[in-house]
Queue: 3 jobs
Job 1
Amino acid sequence: MHGEPFRDVSVALSTSYRMAVTPVIDAGATRRALIMIAAVRPSRSRIQADWVRQLLGRPSRVVDLSGLTRLEARAQCALVRQAVLRLLPDPEAYAVLARYSQTPGEKQLGVSGLVVLLSATSPAPAPATDWLADPVWDLLWRRYLPPRYGDGLSLREIARRTHTSRSGLARRAAELDTLLDELERHALATLEHAFVPDGLCEAQTVPT
């Protein structure tokens, strides 16, 4: 990094969407007070010195918002999130929301948008009024939900719930992964072309 706040586009997105769910209050005030108190002590034991080093932590190698106030950092992250909706076509914006958003409603918006685009090629099309019976819905959540929230999203469970074969679902999941990987690569490349000239991140030559 050479002064950019983010190492690359992916870091900019993941940081910006995490910032959206971070409390506005200054959660580091107590930590800074403890560091100041420890720093003015005339002498410290080895255990106390180790404790201070843990409080100080290590500089991040992928994010540097040190030149910004807390509110400025939040504003910068908000601009990154706005750029997703402003610069990307709907399919790519939906893929980015599904991948990076940390809020349930926003992540569902991304997944729902992808369902509308992809359900026409589902292996077992369900009635348009019942998205929850569409395998594409479950396969997308299987891809984008963190593993700790993935209960009920194994191929076996999806097959039983949607009355489709596991082998058919596995093929469909692989097809979706290929398609969505490509959408996400195009989205990152588009955002990189916008972010690098503004000094937000370094160029990483995102493949298109």
Job 2
Amino acid sequence: MSRKNGFVPLEKRINEIAKTLDIQGSDPSTEYDQYMRGLYNGLELALASLEMREPVFKVKIKNSWIKKRLNKWKK
């Protein structure tokens, strides 16, 4: 994005946040990593407020196979 004139259309900003949210949402670490899930939820909150809708947050999955495998790997 060019900062020469300092103006970036709102639609372009919303599209950039939506693309970033899609990339973040496709990362499997959002299922078990608290930081990555928080990053996703923050992007979702920003996009939802710009689109004037309720956010759809990712919630912690309790007994997922990813969490079990991660715990096994840490030992």
Job 3
Amino acid sequence: MTRDNPPGSIWSRLRLWLMRLLGWNQQPSADHEEDIGILREEKEKLSEEDVEKIREENEKLRSELQKCKESFANFRRRSDKKSQKTEEESRNSEENIGKLREENEELRSELQKCKESFANFRRRSPDKKRQKTEEESGNSEENIGKLREGNEELRLQLQKCKESFANFRRRMGNQATAEIGSHGEAFKDINNPCREDELKKSYDKLKRNVWAKYVQEMNKIQDKKGRIHQKEKAERIIKEVFDKAAENMKESRQSFESLFKINHTDEPDMSKKRFYYMEMAIQKLQMMILLEDNCTFYTDVKHIIPNEPDQLSAGSLTPICNLACMCYKQGCLMALHHPPLTLAWNEKEIRNPFPPIAEETQV
């Protein structure tokens, strides 16, 4: 007997295993005996450790097989639920489709009714609309005629109002201008640069800023006695200049009163009208003084400043002369105000030669 498979090969082992599985009790042949001998030898060669590893691998395979079975069972349960849900959704979708079809039919019927109603309206509207338009046109012509008549009446009334307002402005113009511009007992003209608020601001600027610049000029003098002398000289000149300005403007106001024949024994209306005209003239004088340059007032104050050369021939003013001119200009504007803004010399500060404005002069 020839051997197609060598002893100990995989085919020999497989054949032997099948014979045992089928329970063949035949006597093994010589070839089989050889294979059995080989298997026994290989079995003897296997150690206990190898057997234990094979068992562990078998256990792992069993556990993995169990997990696969559980996963497959879960998958089948999920697939059954999903298929059931899909069937329910399909049934619901069929119901929704049926409802949508019914609604579509209702909309079509309503659309058809709307088309029929619109067609009936178009057939009925031309005659009625034409008749209504003719009636409205007749009424509108009558209304237009009435509106034109009313418009003419309003034009005449407007013309009369304009003429009355122009006469009123001509009558009250001079009186209102005088009241507003000079003393402002009833009003304050915000466009008047010589009103009380602006005069107080300019005086405060003279007191703070201009005096501080002059002190800086005095500090340039090296001699301490010379600085003290210049400061005392400046304080004396400031007071004399303001007094001189108040005196001169008082004479000017008296001249205006004489020119306009202000007499308190006259009738009240006539005296008041003349007083307003005089106040307007004083306002013009204030504006002229305000717009003049400081050098213009040098001739009025040069006799107050001793031991100073002629500044006009020099072409520029020294600090003390410039300060005196600015004080004279401010004093004139304050003296021409009604009532005049006077200075409280007895309340003068020690470090500043400019006293505060007296409280009783505030309007």
